[in-house]
């Protein structure tokens, strides 16, 4: 599949983006799974994020194998195990956000490739995954509990996870319409979840130390407009480290590449593209000579930590570059799925 590649002047060239995607493909296992790094574990969410980056970079054969892995590894109830290492399940629990994200990936792939046949092939997998996720929407306000195990629903609702689910539900609704299988129940469930995200912070476990809880309601599309602008401004100084990126946790001297690139996507989604581009440029200090990206940097001692170059960090870079450069047909996947 011939494709134009993203480039962000002053940050990364199209050739560098291709090299980054190739480091993701190099970690892919023979069955199609994309682990965090070679020999590491695979989780269903980061696996899809990596597949999306491969698609942006024109590595469609590798992306296709990743999506086929998702279809083959789905369980009969529509869920996936939380963690797998080289085909062996290490954590049998199911994470609701992980199980929803395939909808985002399949819509992304369809938008870029136009391959309706492949989307139709994956549609039953997407549908079963979303139905499983919505079986966990048992909260008072429409929130979705974060996980399930053999004993049933466990854990409280998480703001970051539910924000991502909100986005995935929007993608799932769009896919349902394109597949000729509309799901008004999904529309209603997404509307309830959006109301919880916007108006009922008490419904979610307090994890406000984490930057993801700051920007994910915007990235997922539940919060936009003036409310989004105010949310960004309120915590900017708490998380943003000038010239380096953003902290993963507010009280730790650690900037991380994936979180920074996700904030880039969130800022771009609300029209703050100049600021987003500056942040994207700042975080390029995590790029390695082979095109991969270190997960983070402890800026008080200048040490990269953990000592891993993760596929999902590289994937976040590729997706952020695509959004900023408006390159692929799916560059607006996070920009165009706003509030109901």
From TrEMBL:
Lineage: Bacteria, Bacillati, Actinomycetota, Actinomycetes, Mycobacteriales
Protein name: Prenyltransferase
InterPro entries: 6-hairpin_glycosidase_sf, 6hp_glycosidase-like_sf
């Amino acid at each position: 599949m011939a494709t134009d590649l993203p480039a962000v002047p002053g940050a990364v060239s199209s050739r560098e983006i291709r090299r980054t995607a190739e480091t993701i493909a190099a970690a892919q296992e023979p069955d199609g799974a994309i682990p965090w790094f070679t020999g590491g574990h695979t989780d269903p969410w980061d696996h899809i994020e990596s597949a999306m980056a491969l698609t942006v970079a024109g590595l469609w054969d590798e992306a296709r194998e990743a999506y086929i892995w998702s279809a083959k590894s789905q369980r009969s109830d529509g869920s996936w195990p939380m963690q797998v290492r080289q085909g062996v399940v290490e954590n049998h629990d199911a994470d609701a956000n992980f199980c929803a994200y395939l909808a985002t990936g399949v819509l992304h792939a369809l938008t870029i490739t136009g391959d309706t046949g492949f989307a139709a092939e994956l549609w039953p997998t997407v549908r079963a995954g979303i139905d499983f996720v919505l079986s966990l929407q048992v909260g008072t306000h429409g929130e979705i509990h974060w996980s399930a195990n053999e004993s049933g629903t466990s854990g409280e609702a998480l703001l970051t996870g539910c924000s991502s689910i909100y986005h995935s539900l929007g993608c799932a609704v769009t896919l349902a319409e394109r597949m000729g299988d509309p799901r008004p129940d999904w529309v209603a469930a997404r509307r309830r979840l959006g109301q919880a995200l916007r108006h009922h912070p008490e419904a979610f476990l307090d994890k406000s130390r984490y930057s993801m809880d700051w920007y994910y309601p915007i990235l997922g599309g539940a919060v936009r407009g003036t409310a989004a602008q105010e949310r960004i401004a309120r915590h900017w100084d708490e998380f943003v480290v000038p010239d380096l990126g953003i902290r993963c946790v507010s009280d730790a001297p650690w900037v991380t590449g994936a979180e920074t690139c996700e904030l880039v996507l969130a800022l771009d989604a609300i029209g703050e593209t100049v600021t987003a581009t500056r942040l994207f440029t700042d975080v390029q200090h995590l790029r390695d000579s082979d095109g991969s990206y270190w997960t983070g940097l402890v800026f008080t001692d200048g040490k990269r930590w953990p000592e891993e170059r993760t596929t999902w960090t590289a994937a976040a870079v590729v997706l952020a570059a695509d959004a900023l450069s408006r390159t692929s047909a799916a560059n607006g996947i996070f920009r165009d799925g706003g509030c109901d």
